[in-house]
Automatic annotation (TrEMBL):
The gene is DMGDH. This is Dimethylglycine dehydrogenase, mitochondrial isoform X4. It comes from the Eukaryota. InterPro entries: FAD-dep_OxRdtase, FAD/NAD-bd_sf, FAO_M, GcvT/YgfZ/DmdA, GCVT_N, TrmE/GcvT-like. Residues 3-342 form the FAD dependent oxidoreductase domain. Pfam families: DAO, FAO_M, GCV_T. Residues 345-398 form the FAD dependent oxidoreductase central domain. Residues 407-678 form the GCVT N-terminal domain.
Length: 744
């Protein structure tokens, strides 16, 4: 694609790029974000050769320092997942660390996580090389060319207006850095972004550094919360101060970015970072004698969860974003390729739902964004536990009707703005949030909830589900095109998958045919707008006469499951719930006591159960009625941790764990739901036929393992014949890693 235009407000690198520290690393705790880092580094390595522009790329490697036992556990946890990638990563001991970084005080150091090939690059030179390469291949770069308005046209194209004239575009990508909010407002969006002040310190020449034979690796002192690297013959180090001390540039959120701001800095504030400076001096004693020659304090844009927002935006045709980059240098190359591939081929090259701009919604207020940005900045170097919860900005306005009833009884988890019970505690049990790489205080309570559902009857709040109503004269035809399964008959439900053109699993939903031509679609909380965007786009592009309504916030959902579920519910309704009359995967409108519900006979637990869809304002009353009716049967609550254990044992797949845009449905064992012989030419059908004809190279398997204190969390690599498997494919949260992974 050659007809690409970049409109730059002032000059290249203005904003956050020109003053960046330029760090590059292969490391990321996320499986797929590592691919973004890898692509960036591999691009930067060949830029000089390809463009003739010097980029100032240094690759001395990097070492993350562990000074506590739990940090060593974190390194070992990360090593269990490293087999997914071509990049090298090692745990190294104190002797090796000192050999590589001889200026360290080794008193507290227990271990290091070493990534060869990490380093730093000059941001200005990098940008100029990328610009030269873009021009070489046909792109047009215009600056200064500030965009003054964005006008959507009825055919999905855009008129992009600048002082120099207008550009007609098939699609637009907002990549405007800390001006991204202003650009978003032009199309009626409030992007949840906030500028924060980040400082780093540069020293003059240090004799001990100058005397070194080779460049020092980049150092990350995680407990000290700073990075440190060599800068010529001196050192550069940048701390991430606590959320209480860090500074948000909130005036830019309320009043906008100052009109002329481009290559300016904020006034430095050494006092704000002094405790980190002192820690750095203790870890690297030569800093005590060093002179500070520069303190850089510039703006960086943060999203609430520190991850950027990348991809097409729900609700606005052909509007894409690449915004919210707290680490723009290492993400730039990989995200550029990722977006290019997506635009060219009509689907993402691999799954990166954690960067989906649609993970935020109307519940993401400015107050929430600021609270989370403060937290995310301050937590830059905290221990990254599995099942981590962060509590700033919670709860949002998006709470279920059961929140007040349940909040004192359970540990809540955050799901797309919602609070949902993870696990419940009983009197005398430890109720604190205690994350760990080993079994912790929720393990026994979750086991009790599991038994509750298997042996009696349990109730779960499922209100965070994404819920869509689709109706209209073309509704059946649209869904037949979107889904690989057949369309269920009126009064029935099925599990259906939307595939990409290449035959990968874009989404899994349950589809209920409520009345002729009217459907209720249900998806996971984290996929709500991700799935809705795909459905809406296909409806518009195909000219389908349908009405699509997002009713997620209008409906509450109560799940009831277990061998006594029918007995409890039958007390509350005149509807016959017997197996012959209310069959598995049937859906009916009925009343529970006097509360109208849509009841679907389905349960992700794999046990006898129903999901009861009802008005959100009826949730508390419905819950109380069901709990009262189940006293004789020993009814009790259960949360999503127990739900996950139950579904895994039934081999029920979960989108995002056992299937996503990296997998096709055949290798994920979803053959039963894929109807290649149905007449409709659903998206991905032809690709899937070819995949089936060629035969599968991998498939999902369930592994049982013996472990006593360390459980797999998903995405661990599998050992076979004493080697990591190059194409590891784990069974969700029950993958093949033994307790040795943390204890060896």
């Amino acid at each position: 694609m050659k007809d690409v235009v970049l409109l730059e407000k002032s000059e290249l690198t203005a904003g956050s790029t020109w003053h960046a520290a330029g760090l590059t690393t292969y490391f990321h705790p996320g499986i797929n974000l590592k691919k973004i880092h890898y692509t960036s580094i591999k691009l930067y390595e060949k830029l000089e050769e390809e463009t003739g522009q010097v980029v100032g790329f240094h690759q001395p490697g990097s070492i993350r320092i562990a000074t506590t036992p739990v940090r060593v556990d974190e390194f070992k946890y990360q090593m269990t997942r490293t087999g997914w990638h071509a990049t090298e990563q090692y745990i190294i001991g104190p002797e090796k660390i000192q050999e590589m970084f001889p200026l360290l005080n080794m008193d507290k150091i227990l271990a290091g996580l070493y990534n060869p090939g990490d380093g730093h690059i000059d941001p200005y030179s990098l940008t100029m090389a990328l610009a030269a390469g873009a021009r070489k291949y046909g792109a047009l770069l215009k600056y200064p060319a500030p965009v003054t308005s964005l006008k959507p046209r009825s055919d999905g194209t855009w008129d992009v207006e600048t002082p120099q004239g207008s550009v007609r575009a098939n699609r637009i990508v907002n990549a405007a850095g800390f001006w991204a909010r202003e650009v978003g407002k032009m199309v009626g969006l409030e992007h949840p972004l906030i500028p924060v002040q980040h400082q780093y310190v540069v020293t003059s020449t240090i004799p001990e550094v100058k005397a070194l034979k080779r460049e020092l690796p980049v150092l990350r002192d995680l407990e000290g919360s700073y990075y440190l690297r060599q800068e010529r013959d001196g050192l550069l180090f940048g701390p991430y101060e606590s959320q209480e001390k860090m500074k948000v540039q909130d005036s830019w959120v309320t009043s906008g970015v100052p009109a002329g701001f481009g290559k300016e800095l904020f006034e430095s504030d050494l006092d704000r970072i002094m405790e980190h400076v002192e820690v750095a001096m203790e870890m690297v004693p030569v800093l005590k004698k060093a002179d500070i020659i520069n303190i850089v304090n510039g703006p960086i844009t943060y999203s609430p969860d520190i991850l950027p927002m990348v991809g097409p935006h729900q609700g606005i045709r052909n509007y894409w974003v690449a915004i919210g980059f707290g680490y723009g240098i290492i993400h730039a190359g990989g995200v550029g390729k990722y977006l290019s591939d997506w635009i060219l081929h009509g689907e993402p090259p691999f799954d990166l739902i954690e960067l989906d701009p649609n993970r935020y919604g109307k519940w993401t207020t400015t107050q929430y964004t600021e609270a989370k940005a403060r937290e995310s900045y301050g937590f830059n170097n905290i221990v990254g536990y599995p099942k981590e919860e962060r509590f700033a900005g919670r709860p949002t306005q998006r709470v279920s009707g059961l929140y007040k009833t349940l909040e004192s009884k359970c540990s809540m988890g955050f799901h797309a703005g919602w609070e949902q019970p993870h696990w419940f505690y009983k009197p005398g049990q430890d109720t604190q949030y205690r994350p760990s790489f080993r079994r912790t205080n929720w393990f026994e309570p979750v086991g009790s909830e599991y038994k509750q559902v298997m042996q009696k009857v349990g109730v779960i709040d499922l209100s965070p589900f994404g819920k869509f109503n689709i109706k209209g004269q073309d509704s059946v035809r649209l869904l037949d095109h979107l889904f690989a399964n057949v369309i269920p008959k009126v009064g029935f439900t099925n599990i259906s998958h939307m595939l990409t053109p290449k035959g990968r699993v874009y989404a899994e939903l349950t589809v209920s045919h409520q009345t002729p031509g009217e459907f209720l679609l249900i998806t996971g909380s984290g996929s709500e707008l991700h799935d809705l965007r795909w459905i809406e786009e296909e409806a518009v592009n195909g000219g389908y006469d349908v009405e699509i309504k997002n009713i997620t916030d209008e409906l509450g959902v109560l799940g009831i499951a277990g061998p006594h579920a029918r007995k409890v519910l039958q007390k509350l309704t005149a509807e016959d719930l017997s197996d012959d009359v209310f069959k598995f995967l049937q859906t009916k409108s009925l009343k529970v006591s006097d509360i109208p519900v849509t009841a679907i006979r389905i349960s992700y637990t794999g046990e006898l159960g129903w999901e009861l869809y009802h008005r959100r304002e009826d949730s508390a009353a419905l819950y109380d009625i069901v709990m009262d009716a189940g006293q004789e049967e020993g009814i009790d609550n259960f949360g999503t941790y127990a739900l996950n254990a139950l579904r895994l044992e039934k081999a029920f797949r979960a989108w995002g764990s056992e299937m996503n845009c990296d997998t096709n449905p055949l290798e994920a064992g979803l053959d039963y739901f894929i109807k290649l012989n149905k007449p409709a030419d659903f998206i991905g059908k032809q690709a899937l036929k070819q995949i089936k004809a060629k035969g599968l190279k991998r498939r999902l398997v369930c592994l049982t393992l013996a472990t006593d204190d360390v459980d797999p969390e998903g995405n661990e690599s599998i050992w076979f014949d004493g080697k990591w498997q190059k194409e590891p494919w784990t069974w969700g949260k029950a993958s093949g890693i033994t307790s040795q992974s943390l204890d060896d």
